[in-house]
Write a structure and sequence with these properties.
Blueprint: H1 11-22, E1 29-31, E2 35-37, E3 40-47, H2 53-59, E4 63-66, E5 69-76, H3 95-103, E6 109-114, E7 124-129, E8 133-137, E9 147-151, H4 152-159, E10 169-174
Parallel strand pairs: 3-5, 7-10
Antiparallel strand pairs: 1-3, 2-3, 4-5, 6-7, 8-9
Length: 181
């Protein structure tokens, strides 16, 4: 009798799915299948709009290390050219505007607001997401069908930068939803 094999998705594939089901939900962004190059997994994020591509490159984490498994996330244009993030230390540059540009068409994103702290309010931002669940197949043994379930804000917190070179810090939250009566 054949027994079903129990397998766990490697972390680079979980990351790929998180990118595909979060940023890939944007109609102008596609996340390509990962591939291996020089012992590093590469995940390419294709941004159709050349004006938005640098913003997407600026907000995404570009390097991961999962216990020796190296992963790089590359933002590219439709022709396959690498897109570099903008220099956020330039005078007058707005990290808040960059985040809004990167996420404005994403169905999970609500808005970016300054954090309510007595410190520099423009250096602490909060990305606010709708109260939605991102679900994808991931060999999750705790789920009968193998799906993983995440609140949208948690997936975006995993794939986005939370510290920027100009000193800005980004946190993540969910907008209050309606209560069920």
């Amino acid at each position: 009798m054949n027994e079903p094999r129990v397998m766990i998705s490697p972390p680079q594939f979980t990351l790929w799915r998180k990118l595909a089901y979060s940023f890939g939900a944007d109609p102008e962004i596609a996340v390509r299948n990962p591939y291996e190059k020089n012992n590093t997994t590469i995940i390419e994020v294709v941004v159709e709009d050349a004006n938005r591509a640098p913003a997407v490159a600026g907000v995404l984490n570009d390097k991961y290390n999962f216990g020796g498994i190296q992963v790089k996330v590359k933002v590219i244009d439709p022709e396959g050219n690498r897109v570099d993030p903008p220099d956020v230390t330039q005078p007058g540059f707005s990290v808040q505007q960059m985040i809004e540009t990167a996420l404005f068409a994403n169905p999970y994103f609500y808005k970016v607001i300054p954090n309510r702290t007595p410190r520099e309010p423009d250096r602490e931002l909060v990305a606010v997401f709708y109260p939605k669940v991102i679900q994808f197949w991931n060999d999750d043994l705790s789920d009968f069908f193998g799906y993983a379930h995440f609140v949208a804000q948690d997936v975006f917190a995993d794939v986005m930068r939370n510290h920027y070179e100009d000193g800005t810090q980004l946190t993540f939250t969910t907008i209050a939803g309606r209560t069920f009566l």
